[in-house]
Amino acid sequence: MNGLLQDLLAGIAADKLRVVDLTHTLSASFPQLSLPPEMGQALPYRSEEISRYDGRGPAWYWNNFTLCEHTGTHFDAPIHWVSGRELPNNSVDTIPPEHMIAPACVVDCTADAERDADFLLTRERLEEWEAEHGRIPAGAWVLMRTGWARRVNDPVAFQNYDEIGQHTPGPSVDGVRFLVDERDVLGFGTETIGTDSGQAQRLNPPYPCHYYMHGAGKYGLQCLNNLDRLPPTGAVLFTAPLKLEEGSGSPLRVLALIPA
Amino acid sequence: MRARPRLKNPILRTRQPLTPPMPRSRTALGLTAQAAEGRFSLQRCESCGQVQYPPADSCRACLSEELLWTPMSGRGELLAHTTLHHSNDPFYRERLPWRLGLTRLAEGPVVVAHLHRDCPPPPAAARVTAKLDKAGRGVLVALPADELGDMSTDPRHGEFSCDPEHRKVLVTDGKSRVGQALVRELAAAGAAVVWVGQAEPWKKYAGQDAIEKLDQATVVPLDLTDERGVKRIGAEIGGRVDILINNAELHRTQGIAGSAGAELARREMEVNYLGLLRLAQAFGPAMRARGADGGASATAWVNVLSVYALSNYPPQGTYSASKAAALSLSQCLRAEMQDAGIRVVNVFPGPIDEEWNQTLPPPKLAPERLARDIVQGLRDGVEDLFPGDVAKEWLERWKDNPKVLERELALESHTA
Predict the structure, then answer these.
(1) Which residue of A has its CA nearest to B226?
(2) Closest-CA distance of chain A to residue B319, Å
(3) B294 shares a domain with B254
(4) pLDDT, tens digit, 9 for 90 and up, residues B359-387
(5) Number of domains forming the structure of chain A
(6) Domain of A174, in residue numbers
(7) Which of A28, A49, A161 lies at the smallest CB-CB distance from B229?
(8) pLDDT tens-digit series, residues A1-23
(9) ipTM
(10) Same domain, B235 and B96
(11) Nearest to A185 by CA among A102, A82, A91, A62
(12) Inside any domain, residue A180
């Protein structure tokens, strides 16, 4: 076996490298993206039994499941947004597999999000982070850590709706522009239900993270778990979406390798 | 108001449901069809005007076959009465003594009727009504002439009614305006427990606090598209539900040309049709087993359908189709619940005054009125309920000629 791969396996076996699962369990009660009810809706995860060692299949258990490309912990491809519709290789079946293994920078905004559910991650905050941890490398994921994953068993708190909509943290317009135009990141990931903040329809442009990231061929990850277990730099993410024909996104298992 | 039924000794065997004898001739089922909608009608001869009982294929007076089911006034005179102390039928053996009588109706014929406890001995004025018995057959019940209300003072009341008083009721969607009205109406009717189903808990709704504060109300997470969730709630409370009111629905307003793809129609079917199927599988067996369980047995299953289930209303074409599918499945459920003595009630409201009918002109059915009619329908023991004038008018047009109604609705949708 190639020495590099051997070293990798040996590192995992010796607990020098750890595998962290950044994925939530898909369940029927997992909160689902909600649009105004007259619009098309993303289906939540549903599972129906085919058989369970019974008359429908005596020795086997299996289910059919249904869900949206954007249900649970999931990946957004550029084709998801109108700004990315004309790009080459913009759907989950055509994005280059090399992009599915990449480093991650983790920006801890937990205290900010606790103070203000509508917290926006700005260019200024990103530059402060760089001053401490170094420049965000091209081709890296930037993950916004907010502690939101801790709310996942309380769908009301996770969604955090009031009469003017959802209140969840996300990136600001200038923060997104900075990451796209000046750092050429691979994509942006969050713990919340979208890569954009809960009130992002009121920003200019609306949903700036979707608009600029996908417009530049970048990706999104949302509903991430366990970001508190990642170091600010040094983690490597494995993000392989299902190979869905012309898929705009995909639920996926997100794994991180971190030094012990 | 009835006294609260005595609590049952839980180590004794649960009494198994029995029904009175079922077979009836096709002609005699005409009485059942009328009673299902809460009407007492008999055949009246179009040739000689004679009203006859029991129903037959031709007029006993003139042999004409032109017989029309005609509503009766119910007024009559009790001629004779008797009390059964013996029966070879298992259903009646459990319920002896049983009172029967002969009553002469104002319209002429003498009918056999079950007698209310308070009917004075003959000769006495009586009021005759048509009810469905536990087997779902139309039967006649004579009440004292001055009895204005239902027959809730009779201990046999429960054989002909599904009164929610002292019963435990599940309302599958407590968030909608209809659901909230139902919960309030059931609480006011003396239901012991009202489980309030709620899907998507993160979506708050107007009126939430008031509903959740009601003494009888207990919120349960319930989303009819979630098989496992429905099964879980069925396992948790299914053995206690006496009345299930399935009012959960997905209501959108489009036909074929006005929509793209099948996704929305599929979601309608997921709730309106498959949701009913999932509920029936999760709750049906336990309810069937409790069809004769003491004084507050499992007694009724209500499906809130739509008058559009009868004939497609093109501006709401896919919704109509999902309700038609639910109506068909509900007939299957009714057949399967029949021998447990559990009444399946189908409710066919016209357009309800709710957000998805915002642009429809009045008259629209108020959710409170619908809830009142459903609770009253349970007390009366009817099987098909057409609340409000629009629904009643549609029903008449549909009965008169379904093809003509189809054409009229097509025309309405062009002018709408």
Answers:
(1) A46
(2) 14
(3) yes
(4) 889 999 999 999 999 999 999 999 999 99
(5) 1
(6) 16-42+69-259
(7) A28
(8) 789 999 999 999 999 999 999 99
(9) 0.89
(10) no
(11) A102
(12) yes
